[in-house]
């Protein structure tokens, strides 16, 4: 069999071969109003939970206390502590009020912000 015999079968008109290819540009980029009505409102992913894992308070042990200074234009010294929570995770907690008696290895209750 010669090469010319193989190529003769491939000589299909160009307009016919383009009709077989799906048109990607013909699809709609957005949903129609009927499709949006059938599917309902979009489902958003749930928000990421912090170290408290959605709980209002957690018990923990203070690992160390320190003072943080905020960025400009705020200028107060923030009393903070690093806490190992009962879930096993570690978190940095703000100590509210004036003065505190927290020391290392003492119990502490962390409130959710």
Report a brief summary of the structure.
The chain is of the alpha+beta class. It has a domain at 57-112: OB fold (Dihydrolipoamide Acetyltransferase, E2P) (Beta Barrel).
Characterization of the model:
- It comes from Myotis myotis.
- Belongs to the universal ribosomal protein uS12 family.
- It holds the Pfam family Ribosom_S12_S23.
- This is Small ribosomal subunit protein uS12m.
- Keywords: Ribonucleoprotein, Ribosomal protein, Signal.
- This protein is of the alpha+beta class and 113 residues long.
- The chain has a domain of 56 residues: Nucleic acid-binding proteins (OB fold (Dihydrolipoamide Acetyltransferase, E2P), Beta Barrel), CATH 2.40.50.140.
- Helix content is 18%, strand content 27%.
- The chain is built from three helices and four strands; from the N terminus they run H-H-H-E-E-E-E.
- Strands 3-2-1-4 form a four-stranded antiparallel beta sheet, with no helix packed on it.
- The protein is elongated, with a radius of gyration of 33 Å.
- 5% of the residues are buried.
- The model has no long low-confidence stretch (mean pLDDT 80).
Radius of gyration: 33 Å
Q: Write down the overall mean pLDDT.
A: 80
CATH homolog superfamily of one domain = Nucleic acid-binding proteins
Instruction: Give the CA-CA distance, first to last residue.
Output: 81 Å
CATH topology of one domain: OB fold (Dihydrolipoamide Acetyltransferase, E2P)
Tell me the series of helices and strands, N- to C-terminal.
HHHEEEE
Number of strands: 4
Percentage of residues assigned to helices: 10-25%
Please report the first level of CATH classification, the CATH class of one domain: Mainly Beta
Strand order of the largest sheet: 3-2-1-4
């Amino acid at each position: 069999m010669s090469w010319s015999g193989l190529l003769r079968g491939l000589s299909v008109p160009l307009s016919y071969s383009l009709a077989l290819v799906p048109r990607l540009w013909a699809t709609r980029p957005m949903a129609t109003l009927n499709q949006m009505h059938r599917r309902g409102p979009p489902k958003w992913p749930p928000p990421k939970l912090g170290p408290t894992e959605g709980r209002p308070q957690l018990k923990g042990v203070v690992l160390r206390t320190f003072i943080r200074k905020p960025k400009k234009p705020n200028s107060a010294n923030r009393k903070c502590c690093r806490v190992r929570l009962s879930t096993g995770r570690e978190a940095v907690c703000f100590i509210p009020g004036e003065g505190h008696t927290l020391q290392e290895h003492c119990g502490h209750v962390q409130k959710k912000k």
